[in-house]
Each structure stands twice: as structure tokens, then as C-alpha cells.
Amino acid sequence: MSAASPIIDVREPDESHPYEPGRANRPASPTLIMKLWDMPLALDVDRTVDAGTGRPWNHHGDGPARAPCTTVPAAEPCEEIVVTEPIRPDDLRVSDVERARVQDLLSRAHDVGQLDLYEFDERVRTAWAARTRGELQHVTADLPAPPAPVPGRSPVFSSTGGGTAMRVLTIIWASIAAVNFVVWGIIALTTGQFVYPWWVWVAGPPGAVLAVLYTAGVGRPAR
Question: Which residue range forms the structural domain that includes residue 195?
């Protein structure tokens, strides 16, 4: 079989040609006709397999069919999508922060008398052994909301070191002033005469110093 040879066919156009009307007076354009003898046509190949050789044969009877020029790309593998059921909120895992919060709630329930000491200890151990939110909620499911704390009297001194010192100094000052006042009163009653109130000088100056310190903020609780 010879190699592909180009054939140049120069034809004068005809007005009667259905595809070139009105081109009789124009110069003809050369048409390059390529005959590729060795080029197989993938669309004409019949993929019939010969029983003797196991090779495919075409329909035209001119020997085994050649492989097509182009190869159809293989389809991309499908991504497997696994559909699972959504996780329920009760099946979510809990952290130590949530367990500690439940322990604080149990402690308040024990303080107000909702739980005794045995129940409190048992439920605390159950809370720290819980793994899901459903198990943790079951620990406090039967406990009502604790009552609101009764507002008590606001403290006079803070819980800091300055508040403790002011509290001790005030107790000492009040004790000394009270003793001197009682002694002065006993003397005045027994003698039946007016006695100079000397106890004022014992109680006044130290009391004034304590008042100035407290006004300046020493030992006073934050508002």
C-alpha cells in the first residue's frame, strides 16, 4: 500500500452547480484533496472477533480492523456516599465542664435539703461516669430548680486582709470604750456627783482614726 499522496483537482465552477451559483466569471480556487490510504475509520470498524485468531474483523472484508484513532476516556469512578442517620442530642458526648456544672447543681440541691448525703454522693459519682448528655440529664431529671437564696445583710467589712484588720481593731476599740463608759457610770452613780466624762477621750480619738480609715476604703467591701 503506497503512502498517502495529495491530488490537486482544479475544476471550473459551473453555474448549474447547486453549491456554487453565479461563479462562472470568477477564477477557480484549487481544492486540495488528501487521500489517506492507511487511515482507518473508527466508525466503520465492526468489532467482530475472529474465532481463530481472536482479533477483531471489520465489515468490509479487508483484514483485521485497526485500533481507532481516538480512545474514549474511561468514566470517572463514582464517589460513594454513605447516608447515616443524624446523631440525637442525647447521644452527644459531654465534657468535664458539663460534669462539674451538674456537680454544682447537686451541691445546691443538697444544701437546700433536696438530697441527703448518700444521694448526693451517689449522683456525683454517676455524673462523673456519664458519657452522653442523655445520661448526664438523667442525674438531675427529678430535681426542681433550687429556691432563690434569701438576701442577707450586706457585710460591713470585706473578706480581704484589710477588712479582717479593721474588724479586729474595731472590736478592740469598742471593748475598751465600753469598759471605760461602764466604769464612769458606776462611779457617777455611787458617788451621787457629776463625774467628768473622761471615757470620751479613751473612745473618741481611736474611733475617729478607724472612721477615717474606713471612709478611705480600708476594709470596706466593694459596692
Answer: 161-215
Average pLDDT, the chain: 74
Residue 17, number of CB atoms within 10 A of its CB: 11
Task: Kindly state the cell numbers that stand for 198.
Answer: 473622761
* Cβ-based burial of 151 (10 A; exposed 0-12, middle 13-18, buried ≥19): exposed
Tell me whether residue 68 is in a domain.
Answer: no
Domain-embedded: residue 148: no
**Cβ neighbours, 10 Å, residue 65:** 21
DSSP of 80-148 = P----PPPPGGGSB--HHHHHHHHHHHHHHHHTTSS-HHHHHHHHHHHHH--BHHHHHHHTTTPPPPPP
Dig out the grid coordinates for 144 from the structure.
426542681
1-56 per-position pLDDT tens digit:
444 444 444 455 445 544 444 444 454 444 444 444 444 444 444 445 555 555 55
What's the angle, vertex CA 144, arms to CA 138 and CA 146, rounded to 5?
Answer: 120
Determine the Cα–Cα distance for residues 204 and 119; give it in Å rounded to an integer: 56
Do residues 124 and 93 share a domain?
A: yes
